[in-house]
Structure formats: structure tokens, C-alpha cells
Description:
2 domains; elongated; NikA-like; 64% helix; 4 helices; mainly alpha
Amino acid sequence: MSKNSSINLDKRAKRTREISIRVNDYELTELKKRNRGSTVARWLRDLALGVTPVKPVDPDLVRQLGRIGSNLNQLTRYVNTERQVDAQVLLEIKAICEQIHLLIESSIGASKKSARYNYDR
Length: 121
């Protein structure tokens, strides 16, 4: 029997091993600033194990996208019922596409602004 066969590979097992890293004051401040919602240890462990951090979603953006989705459902229902697409439906679809592009641009702009703010601090 090899030495490694007795290692517990259950990811839910109690954590008994410790890894230490040294950081300076600036690095510690940056780690704490970038970590949101958990301990630094948990956040670093998740990053090291490949867990992708998820940024919180803007609730207003979700509501607006929900409304757009509702409009698309109504248009789809109309097209399926009428079995044709008239000029008004095409205009509505074009307006929805423009709304989506504006939301995307707005969201990207807000993210870039936030990233610049966090970087400059």
C-alpha cells in the first residue's frame, strides 16, 4: 500500500492542512477589497480550485431584460397565431434589438467605470 492511498480525497472532509502565504500591506488591502462576501481564505481557495467568481447582477438590468423578454414572447405568440410577420412586428423586433444593445452598452460602460474606480483606489 502506498503512502498516498490513505489520503482522504473527499472534498467535504474537514480541513486540517494549512498553507501560509506572505503579503505586504498593499497586497492584503487589495485581496480584502477584491474579495466580496466571504473570507479571504475561502475566496483564495475557490480561485485556486477553479471556482469562477460571479459578480452580482444589477437588479434593474434584470427587470429591463425581463420586460424585453415579455415583449418578445408577445410578438412570438402573434407571429405563431397570424402565421405571418407584418411591418409593425418587424419594427417592434427592431426596437427590442435596439433596447438590448443600449442595455448592453450601458452595462459594459458601468462595469468599466467600476473597474477603473477600483483600480485607481
